[in-house]
Amino acid sequence: MNIRISIVALLMAEAFTLLAGGVQSRAQVAPWAPRPADPAFDLAVTYTPERGKIVSTPCDCFWLQGGGADAALTLYRGLGLAASFTGQHASGLTGGSSLSKLDYLFGPRFTLHSTGRSDAVKYSTRIFAEALFGGVHAFDGTFPGSVVATNTANSFAYQLGGGFDLALSRHIGFRAVEVSFFHSGLPNSASQTQDDFRLATGISARFGRH
User: Is 95 helix (H, G, I), strand (E, B) or coil?
Assistant: First the structure.
């Protein structure tokens, strides 16, 4: 699990470095900083693929496809609370099986902002990091039980990661990338855990401080 978290952190750092470098090469940019006070409310709708693995094989990996929505309230100096809801599905797995799941997560988010002008256009970029906790409901699959297998299961889940949004207008933005480590504890025939790699991209909206 530590290796996967390290990979996620490395990918996020590289993406943020490229973005910051590209912006600074075209315009003067205000230093990255949290907003000092005014609350702000963020919404996002995303396409959210996730790389999973069948535990009974050395590397039988697959991609769940789906989408998500999240909301965040920034309260003070970049600190706030976020909530996320994601639904995903994968079919054609080993043995012709499939898997669907819904997760609902809540937790703290920290957001940094940078603003500037490029070609006489004002823009704002926001980088955020979060730690979300909640649950996952899985269905349309096969999950071992104490007596017989079932086609539904529930477990605790958490997500660690972050991403960045680039403003397209006063309220609408583009979530260029979000990278997360997603952990769940659904029953399987081995460790009873899943450590997945999750991506997201989509449209965001912001109301409040810009």
Answer: helix
What's the full length of the chain, in residues? 210
pLDDT tens digits, 150-194:
889 999 999 999 999 998 888 899 999 999 999 999 988 777 889
Contacts of 136 (CB under 8 A, 6+ apart): 101, 102, 103, 104, 154, 155, 156, 157, 184, 186
Residue 178, phi then psi, degrees to nearest 5: -135, 130
Q: Which two tokens stand for residue 25?
A: 């090469």
* Helix/strand/coil for 123: strand
Which amino acid, residue 2? Answer: N
Distance in angstroms (rounded) separating the CA atoms of residues 44 and 22: 24
Full-model pTM: 0.79
Find tokens 């109301």 and name the residue. 207
Q: Is the dihedral of CA 184, 75, 209, 124 positive or negative?
A: negative
Which tokens in the block code for residue 151? 């086609």
Q: In this structure, is the dihedral angle defined by the CA atoms of residues 16, 129, 48 and 4, taken in order, positive or negative? A: positive
The answer to whether 23 touches 125, Cβ cutoff 8 Å, is yes
